[in-house]
Design brief:
Elements (H helix, E strand, L loop, with lengths): L7 H10 L10 H21 L6 H7 L4 H5 L5 H20 L10 H13 L2 H13 L8 H24 L9 H21 L6 H16 L2
InterPro entries: BetI_C (IPR039538), Homeodomain-like_sf (IPR009057), HTH_TetR (IPR001647), Tet_transcr_reg_TetR-rel_C_sf (IPR036271)
Pfam family, one: TetR_N
GO molecular function: DNA binding
């Protein structure tokens, strides 16, 4: 993703999810309309999820007819995939990727990601709602979310293993388990923050957790 090292898994996912450049025939005006549609779709997915949103209402929110929206996206699933791809692109641009860290430095990456998320509540809410829906076996984003977790956990575990091999982390660290734990904590804190954003310091809570974990992992 832009501004960050991209793994082969990222590249494959980006291909499936239609990472956006400007293909031949696309105009600046067309890109502007697409951006507006993506923003509207994100708001609707945050409020009602994929299943509770309609192309007609998203189009109306942009001052378009449904046919006008379909000029830019092939259908509702295509729009969903574009929303997810755009969130990934922006995250990687803002905070990089786990694979750019080493050893316990992956906790710095995770902390940056949590802080970044705290500044985009609508996007995070949409992602959380869609992820919850995606546990359904027939949800169109199920494979995306499963692969996303696998990719991030695999990248983070690899960097933790680098820390073990360099002697910075304890030799008995179960890197895959720690990587999974970090993302589980991030998701749990995020849920609490989404439910009570004015009173829950997600970034501060994660920072305290990261400090404890860093001390526990140190060689």
């Amino acid at each position: 993703m832009d501004g960050a090292a991209t793994t082969s898994s990222d590249g494959a996912r980006a291909g499936r999810l239609g990472r956006r450049g400007r293909p031949p025939g696309r105009t600046a005006r067309g890109d502007s309309v697409r951006e507006e549609i993506l923003a509207a779709a994100t708001r609707h997915f945050a409020a009602g999820g994929y299943n509770g949103s309609s192309l007609a209402r998203i189009a109306a929110d942009c001052g378009l007819s449904q046919a006008g929206l379909l000029h830019h996206f092939a259908g509702k699933r295509d729009l969903l995939e574009a929303v997810l791809a755009e969130r990934d692109r922006r995250d990687r641009t803002a905070v990089g990727a786990p694979g750019q860290a080493d050893g316990a430095d992956v906790l710095d990456f995770a902390h940056r990601l949590v802080a970044h998320n705290a500044g985009q509540p609508t996007v995070v809410r949409a992602f959380a709602v869609l992820a919850g829906e995606a546990v359904g076996l027939d949800h169109p984003a199920r494979d995306y979310f499963a692969e996303r977790y696998r990719t991030y956990v695999t990248e983070m575990a690899a960097e933790l293993r680098n820390g073990v091999e360099s002697g910075r982390l304890r030799a008995d660290v179960d890197c895959a388990a720690v990587a999974s734990e970090i993302f589980a904590v991030m998701d749990g804190l995020q849920t609490q923050w989404l439910l009570d954003p004015d009173n829950f310091d997600m970034t501060g809570r994660f920072g305290a957790y990261a400090a404890r974990l860093r001390a526990a992992l140190a060689a």
